[in-house]
Amino acid sequence: MARLIAARRTAVVPKGGAFAQLSLEELAAPVLLACLADAGISPGQVDEVILSNALGAGGNPARRVALAAGLAVAGLTIDRQCAGGLDAILLARALVDSGAAEVVLAGGVESYSRRPLRLRTDPDGGPPVAYDEAPFTPWPDRNPGMAEAAEALAQRLGLGRDQQEAWAMESHAKALNSDHSSEIVALNGVTRDTFPRRLTPALLARAPAVHGGITAATAAVAADAAAVCLVVSDRVAKGRGLAILGGATVGGDPMEPGTAPIAAIRRIWDGEPLAMAEIMEAYAVQAIAVVEGAGLDPAVVNPGGGGLARGHPVGASGTVLAVRLFHGLRRGRGLAAIAAAGGIGTALLVASGAGEE
């Protein structure tokens, strides 16, 4: 059974902030090295580096990050948008459980600040057309924007702006009252997530609308960050860390991406009590829908705040959830889950000790 024996991340910083000048390599290489140092694993023991990256221009960022960290591995970059940071861990688990590898660094890195400008060529010979987001389905009429999909979900479930704002306020409050220092690698002098603030009803009322009842306060801000987990075999782990009990990625309805994690959770979680659950908050309504739809206990969800309080570094966000589990789960089972554009949902189930608590 594969295990997580180290997990680290940078702070999550909104785009244009303290990490705006950093390359993907500068964001992620120090995090890889911190994981190895924490676990007492030498660079020569690493079999592979798998990193999720959703907004970059290609070129296999995982290879570039590995080289910057002094690792002699090929590197594998994946793109499953928001879900990629968890999927990288599931791929590492598969390599380890199959015997193809024993030590894999898996995670995600994203720079919203330095994402490339994109131009789409005209097949009829016209001038290139700028675009910010690639399509997530082959059907223009079934390819909703994420805020549009969140508003439609809120309407279907009858979740009003007040309920979404209450969730956002609690997310920020929990983040402000939590100490995340053990999981954060200091970078550019930043040692904590910079976005959490004391939200009040008056501030929430002034938040600009994004789409319908979705506001800037109930949608996660675009951000820069890197996060990495060290996934190893039982032989290497020697009983340390968290056992990976299960993982699943599903493809759901592209028109309602926010609820896709529910099916992934049901595949791997049997309803046994969870000590901790990290659910991505790309939108407040999406997090509420997953918690309620999967039957999770709200009392154990995002105890240190969620994505609304941190920000959303797309390709790294799933791994941030796993890092939070690694540092927060003291006993019992923990769950992480995230939704992605196009109707994708990924979930990860872990346990402390031998995984049988």
Summarize the topology.
Blueprint lengths: L2 E7 L3 E2 L9 H16 L8 E5 L8 H8 L7 E3 L5 H15 L4 E9 L6 E3 L8 E3 L14 H12 L3 H16 L24 H6 L2 E3 L2 E2 L7 E10 L1 H4 L4 E10 L8 H9 L7 E4 L4 H11 L12 H4 L3 H15 L4 E8 L3 E9 L5
Parallel strand pairs: 3-4, 3-5, 12-13
Antiparallel strand pairs: 1-10, 1-11, 2-10, 5-10, 6-7, 8-9, 11-14, 13-14
Helix pairs in contact: 1-2, 3-11, 8-9
Features:
single chain, 357 residues, alpha+beta, Peroxisomal Thiolase, Chain A, domain 1, 10-stranded mixed sheet, two-stranded antiparallel sheet, 32% helix
Description:
The chain has 357 residues and is α+β, with helices and mostly antiparallel strands. The protein has one domain (3-116, 168-351): Peroxisomal Thiolase, Chain A, domain 1. The protein contains eleven helices and 14 strands. It has helices at 24-39, 61-68, 84-98, 146-157, 161-176, 201-206, 234-237, 260-268, 284-294, 307-310, 314-328, and strands at residues 3-9, 13-14, 48-52, 76-78, 103-111, 118-120, 129-131, 209-211, 214-215, 223-232, 242-251, 276-279, 333-340, 344-352. The strands form three sheets. Strands 1, 2, 3, 4, 5, 10, 11, 12, 13 and 14 form a ten-stranded mixed β-sheet that branches. Strands 6-7 form a two-stranded antiparallel ribbon. A two-stranded antiparallel sheet has the order 8-9. Strand 6 and strand 7 (129-131) form a beta hairpin. Helix 1 (24-39) crosses helix 2 and helix 8 packs parallel to helix 9 (284-294). The protein is globular, with a radius of gyration of 19 Å. The two termini are 16 Å apart. 55% of the residues are buried. The mean pLDDT is 96.
